[in-house]
Design brief:
By secondary structure, the chain is of the alpha/beta class. 52% of the residues lie in helices and 9% in strands. The chain is built from 16 helices and 6 strands. Strand 3, helix 13 and strand 4 form a beta-alpha-beta unit.
Length: 316
């Protein structure tokens, strides 16, 4: 996992550094900068590969370190402003483009310019108060004081699982964690622990200000297929346009056919799982994971299981 903080630390500590590697690192993780680059390139995998090869060929380009540090100072000042937006990889990409040289020239040749990145950042600012009409009807926002206050739980002994979820969410592929464990081991509590970290700001910059929405499947009627599909598509559109992570308890139910008590939702989610536009967290039991998810190779290859064991007395 490479967060904005790690990248900045790398820049400050190196007498020589490699802008090309920084941009390559952005392409390797699921982050705001990668999202901008992918959008500009039309989500065209071949063009992304071409760009990565071009960056790989630019080794140890000499640049004006003072210019770059000045750019970093600008964004540190932005992070300290009253809006407290924080430094993200999108801001780092902007700073990279401030530096004259072959890396900037290569990015510009692909349409990745200062103006393009600025527009994305301005759009994010305008959308700071996004609409979650569907999400608020069929989901519970776990990242609210009300929900966390009602739970009133201090999650202990689960830091390893929460850290693993963060690592998976930020990587480039198979970035949808599924908590797998027996009923009652505390899978949902682990997700709430991640929500608490997000609220506290104790996560990498690219996850700050995200929200975790817990889907209430019983609130959706799969019998009315047209209405069901429209509701799910509207929900996914909302989460795509904003910083939303969808948590689905009993995740196996989206893969199970309706005849087996499933919602038939899996086919609607697979495209978003495949292109990485939406981030998901699931929870299920080992038996149901094997029966429904491992049996669906198209679904399974886009997920990463985290096996959750019952805490011992020494862990609590």
């Amino acid at each position: 996992m490479i967060s904005s903080t790690v990248m900045f630390d790398y820049i400050y500590k190196q007498a020589e550094f490699d802008l090309a590697r920084i941009v390559l690192a952005m392409l390797e993780v699921n982050c705001g900068a990668r999202g901008i680059i992918m959008t500009v390139l039309g989500n065209n995998r071949s063009r992304v590969i071409e760009l990565a090869k071009g960056l790989d060929n630019l080794k140890r380009e000499e640049i004006d370190l003072d210019i770059y540090r000045n750019s970093v100072h600008v964004f540190n000042s932005m992070a300290d402003s009253d809006r407290n937006i924080g430094i993200t990889t999108a801001h780092l990409l902007y700073a990279v483009l401030e530096v004259k040289g072959r890396v900037r020239d290569l990015l510009v040749s692909y349409g990745i310019t200062l103006n393009t990145v600025r527009k994305f950042l301005e759009k994010k600012d305008r959308d700071e108060e996004p609409s979650f009409d569907v999400a608020e009807k069929i989901c519970v926002n776990l990242c609210t004081a009300e929900i966390l206050g009602v739970r009133n739980n201090i999650i202990t002994g689960r830091n390893a699982e929460i850290d693993e979820m963060i690592r998976i969410l930020l990587r480039r592929s198979k970035n949808n964690p599924v908590l797998v464990g027996e009923p009652g081991v505390g899978k949902t509590a682990i997700v709430e622990g991640l929500a608490q970290r997000i609220v506290n700001g104790d996560v990498p910059g690219d996850l700050k200000n995200w929200r975790i929405y817990s889907l209430r499947l019983p609130d959706i009627n799969p019998a009315n297929r047209a209405s069901f599909e429209q509701t799910i598509r509207s929900l996914l559109d909302e989460l795509y346009d904003t910083d939303g992570i969808l948590f689905i308890d009993e995740f196996h139910s989206i893969a199970a056919p309706q005849t087996a008590g499933g919602s038939g939702m899996g086919d609607l989610l697979k495209p978003d799982l495949a292109n990485g536009h939406i981030r998901f967290i699931g929870a299920t039991t080992l038996d149901e994971y094997r029966q429904y998810i491992e049996a669906d190779s198209a679904l399974e290859r886009r997920l990463t299981p985290i096996f959750v064991k019952e805490l011992s007395a020494t862990d609590t």
